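quick one: flavin-adenine dinucleotide bound model?
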Amino acid sequence: MIDVVIIGAGPAGTAAAFDLLSSGFSVLLLDKYAFPKKKACAGGITPKAVALFRYDISSLIRQECRSIKIRPQPGRAFVIQDENPLCHMIQRWELDLFSLNMVQRKGGQFQVVKKIVSIQEKKFHTEIRTSDQLIKSCYLIGADGANSIVRRLTRTFCRVNRYPALEADIRVDHPERHSMEFDFSMPGRGYYWIFPKGNHLNIGIYSTTGHPALKQLQLAEYAQKRFGTDRLQAVRGYSIGVGGYAYRPGSGRVLLSGDAAGFGENLLGEGIYFALKSGQAAARAIVLASADSVSPGVAYAKEIKKIRTDLRLYHLSAKCLYSFPSFSLKLLSLPLFHKKFAKGYADGKTLGQILLCR
Ligand SMILES: Cc1cc2nc3c(=O)[nH]c(=O)nc-3n(C[C@H](O)[C@H](O)[C@H](O)COP(=O)(O)OP(=O)(O)OC[C@H]3O[C@@H](n4cnc5c(N)ncnc54)[C@H](O)[C@@H]3O)c2cc1C
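yep, here:
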């Protein structure tokens, strides 16, 4: 029997797999797609996320952003900056492939599955029935993203809110001259982003209303207005799983991590940091559980306490920002505030650590 099956080979799944393999566990990663594969993601990685990787990802970084332009609506644009990078730009498919290769090099197995049909938790193991086989493992981690089948099939976990985001690449002259940007002129509660990626720009829309129908037309109009082109390439949309501050693992052998547990933050939609952090926490919980005969769910609940506190703070900040955007962005435009935020982000701190001076 395999020690741990992980469903989903994104940042949460590969982070959990890598740490489990380092502790001597056997790991089988299942994903519904072969790699390399496309995944909707703008590929902005904050310093705190970069610091979590167990391997060097510097070869994947296309551009480092030391400044971020904020466009309030109404109001004048202002720039947040630091001497150190505030965000690193990667191509998401490259990161996923790289991480999976690292896991396989460490001895992890990887398999593409068509369909997960059922999941059963027994006293000493779990049973995962796919469309063509039955797999038994001591533990199961559901790291299969915002629409998690593990969450749906086990039915023991809280509801996750799904906030939509839509992205596209555009070609412009001298993309390297553009800065990273969050533009709050979007109607409704959300923003447009512009992320420079070396030879192109990635632009997108993030919405906190949970309304699934973000329109390609809206993004094309924005591109036309800002860059004089509506030729969008590689348009992709998906949801970000948020609300995970309410997630409580049961006492069993199935743990959720990353977007499957709602561990995306809903202020700006950053999810890679929390996916890595919770994947590593799930691995640690399983290592502890098998050594101390404590339930993995109970160990995991302790491990994710700080993540949940952080996510609650992001949630409250999002409420403040999107309910009172003029006031919040005016406050952020004051150097006293934004220098503190920029320094905190560049130093790899979470919002909680910045606000509470932890
Ligand atoms: C448009 C967009 C832009 C974003 N930009 C950023 C950004 O710039 N920075 C940032 O930090 N976050 C960003 N996010 C959020 C970020 O992408 C997610 O939070 C992060 O990918 C979550 O990682 P994960 O490992 O939990 O899940 P995922 O990355 O979603 O990985 C889940 C894996 O599970 C697999 N899977 C799904 N269902 C099944 C199934 N039934 N069976 C088997 N396998 C399955 C998938 O194929 C996938 O490989 C963005 C999200 C979107 C939608």
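The pocket of flavin-adenine dinucleotide is lined by residues 7-13, 30-33, 39-44, 113, 116, 143-145, 149, 165, 167, 204, 238, 240, 258-260, 264, 269-273, 275 (CB under 6 Å).
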